[in-house]
């Protein structure tokens, strides 16, 4: 093993490949995380579904009145938005703990570092699948189920979420392991993002200034899943933004991971 | 064929206090030209200083030395946990580190779940684990306890479980850190037999311990580390005698 930069790049890429190859391990660990969290509770992970549903009903009635919107339109919009948002925010917040949270494991045995990122993403995908029940129910009551093409978009969108989740967890995990005041900083920023992103309010409310939300990357990630859930197709701008961020995010992450991967064990 | 080669290997561990870890301080210090916050440089501890070592099949190396000599760090390097800061390292063969075997045990999970999780971390496939579970139930003597959360176990029971799971895979290179402090006499005997069996199948053993007795029984070579450097390396008895004399003189 040498410390030449090319060797380090190779090690970083091998880590990604080997991490993915250990899917037996991270699938099991991700499942276990969820079971662990809801041990001894009767409803298990459906507690998440219930708490999201309660939030939805409460927000739904208040804001439909405030914004003078039709419940029939507003409820599905809000449901799809909130469920997608909880996926984004938990990926970001838990992504910060990707390595800090598994310090004993990192200190004890050599594993590809990407295993921990795959685990966080998989765990959050499972939670999302529990939450999506809400959207199905709301859509069944107020609208109609999405057609084939939106469903296809939804599947592609979820795949893109997973792909983005991995770089996000690696990058945030690495930075937060080194700089310990990042996690609280990220947590408060994400709170802010929730209010400036069209989740509880409709983009049409930004009368005359709708184009400004195109500069909010979170808007595009919301739309990526929300549009198909509401039986529409994400716009070209959304596709382009998401694909661009995916490529850019992975590029930055590979560079950071290449340079600092071998420091992680010293930092945790 | 298992082999370990280290050439002029260094490990520096950075010590981060809260201010060096803080991004805010970093940014502030950049803004003020580093005049106000002067803790730019991170303190590092040179844990291992230019260590060279060659081990091949059949070597059972005992690591001795005072606390902080670098024994655990050396084991972590051999385990692949720490990548050396400088130098050259080549480790061939599958490695199983038994560094702090209690670390990976999840107290909230049942014994069975721990078998699954730890086994998966060690690289076992699910069907291999199913077969092993029975064996583990029998060897640990935990029986029905395996179905309840580990937090209800006594410390001796936790050790039995952790030890048995970790020693279910035969590696080519086995790394052991001292952990024989818990457990009743009966299990200790059983554990030692199991360990001996594992060691006889493993190509290389590296064992860090303060117990000269255990080192005599398990090892055929001794490395005396002091401040991250080799103080002595050779046959068991001469090095242990030298070390004992040194400790007596110091004490």
Main sheet properties of chain B: 6 strands, mixed
Series of secondary-structure elements of chain B, N-terminal to C-terminal: EHHEEHEEHHHEHEHEEH
The count of domains of chain A is 1
Largest sheet of chain A: none
Poorly predicted runs of chain A are none
Distance between the termini of chain A: 23 Å
- What order do the SSEs of chain A take from the amino end to the carboxyl end, as H and E? HHHHHHHHHHH
Query: Biggest sheet of chain B: strands side by side, in what order?
Result: 5-6-7-3-8-9
The helix fraction of chain A, in percent, is over 70%
* Helix share, percent of chain B: 25-40%
| Global morphology of chain B | globular
Q: Tally the beta strands of chain A.
A: 0
Structural class of chain A: mainly alpha
The whole-angstrom Rg of chain B is 21 Å
Describe it.
The complex is a heterodimer of chains A (268) and B (251). Chain A is built from 11 helices and no strands. Chain A has 268 residues and is mainly α. In chain A, helix 1 crosses helix 6 and helix 4 packs across helix 9. The mean pLDDT of chain A is 92. In chain B, helix 4 packs across helix 5. At the A-B interface, helix 2, helix 5 and helix 11 of A face helix 2, strand 4 and helix 4 of B.
Question: Which helices and strands occur, and which strands form pairs?
Answer:
The complex is a heterodimer of chains A (268) and B (251).
Chain A lengths: L4 H17 L1 H15 L8 H21 L4 H25 L7 H6 L5 H29 L5 H31 L3 H15 L20 H13 L6 H25 L3 H4 L1
Helix pairs in contact in A: 1-6, 1-10, 2-6, 3-4, 3-6, 4-6, 4-7, 4-8, 4-9, 6-7, 7-9, 7-10, 9-10
Chain B lengths: L2 E13 L2 H4 L1 H9 L11 E14 L3 E5 L6 H9 L6 E7 L2 E4 L12 H11 L4 H15 L14 H12 L6 E5 L7 H17 L2 E5 L3 H7 L2 E6 L2 E6 L1 H15 L1
Parallel strand pairs in B: 3-7, 3-8, 5-6, 6-7
Antiparallel strand pairs in B: 1-2, 1-4, 8-9
Helix pairs in contact in B: 4-5
